Amino acid sequence: MSLKNRSFLKLLDYTPAEIEELLDLAADLKARKKAGIRHNEQLAGKNIALIFEKTSTRTRCSFEVAAHDLGMEVTYLDPSGSQIGKKESIADTAQVLCGMFDGIEYRGYGQEIVNELAKYSTVPVWNGLTNEFHPTQILADFLTIKEHFGKLAGLKAGFVGDGYNMANSLIVGCLMMGMDFTIACPNGYRPSADVLFFAREYGDHFKLTTAPDEAARGADVLFTDVWTSMGMERETERRRRDFNGFCLDAARMALAKPDCMIQHPLPAHRGEEITAEVLEAHANEIFDEAENRLHVEKAVLGILLAGK
Ligand code: CP
Predict the structure, then answer these.
(1) Contact 129 CB / ligand 1 (< 6 Å)
(2) Model confidence over 59-117: pLDDT tens digits?
């Protein structure tokens, strides 16, 4: 299927070959930006809406800079600045916005909201994070891992932390791309049931455990994320207790392969999910990952609106 004009709601909507195509385009756009080569001819004059019902640094900035680099104009709707879902239905919002914009990014709550936006929109809709998935972040992680190891397939990945949107997306993405994946999370913080159902198809390539050392042992790449995601702030103290022992620290890193890399979507809480020492030792990989949000957002905007 052509990538042109397709929404990007979750990784499972794409084949591994299409994800590789997006990553190749992102790498090419990154190289062109670094070389100072303009790459905005196709999309100049397009307009996109960025709907943020939750706060953001990386996602907002990467979509905005990507759009500007591609010659597009951006309208930002902040968490208090739109009627969506409050005074106006998702369906009506979609039909209004697609009459004005060439694409719509949405960050907010349930996956059903971004699905509904896409259902009623005639222009592409991009998922900038929902409670279930964070697919553009995973593209940035994959681009960073490919820059580091030159490949995805065959690598052994581990995730230590909350089985929430990052974990859900990584399980799907890593298994699709031929990686082994072990996730360690406390009881009560398992990934979504439908994601675990999907992972069952991959047999021994997937493992769910409550033992963080199992996720770290022999890993090529280790992922983590904050223990308390946006909107869960009232649970912070309980979560600190429940995730006690799930920190990526030097002792745990010593179980991984010597050249193991770390990916963290940021913001990080040093001393909770990762020690300051381990984060600083892997800062290049983590901040490259943050920068790569820009290049993958550009690939998503560019390939979906204009085709290649
Ligand atoms: N990683 C990520 O999504 O960062 P923001 O919440 O700052 O957008």
Answers:
(1) yes
(2) 999 999 999 999 999 999 997 877 787 789 999 999 999 999 999 999 999 999 999 99
Rounded to two decimals, the pTM is: 0.97
Does the bond joining 124 to the residue before it have cis omega, within 30 degrees of 0? Answer: no
Q: 53 phi and psi, to 5 degrees?
A: -95, -10
Residue 22 identity: L
The answer to whether 178 touches 152, Cβ cutoff 8 Å, is yes
Q: How far is the CA of 129 from the centre of ligand 1 (A)?
A: 8
Q: Compute the distance between CA of residue 223 and CA of residue 103 in angstroms, rounded to an integer.
A: 30
Cα-based distances in Å from 217 to 130, 224, 252: 30, 15, 8
The CB of 226 under 6 Å from ligand 1? The reply is no
Helices (H), the chain: 16-34, 58-69, 90-97, 111-119, 135-149, 165-176, 193-200, 212-216, 236-242, 250-253, 276-281, 283-306
Question: Among candidates 142, 216, 140, which has minimal Cα distance to 181?
Answer: 216
What does the pLDDT read at residue 38?
A: 79
Does residue 46 sit in helix, strand or coil? coil
Whole-angstrom distance, CA of residue 278 vs CA of residue 271: 10
At residue 183, the 3 state secondary structure works out as strand
Instruction: Kindly give the number of the ligand 1 atom that is closest to the alpha carbon of 290.
Output: 1
What is the maximum alpha-carbon separation in the chain?
55
**Residues of the chain with pLDDT > 70: what percent?**
98
* Rounded Cα distance, 26 and 147, in Å: 11
CA 204 / ligand 1 centre spacing (Å): 32
CA 134–ligand 1 middle distance (angstroms):
9
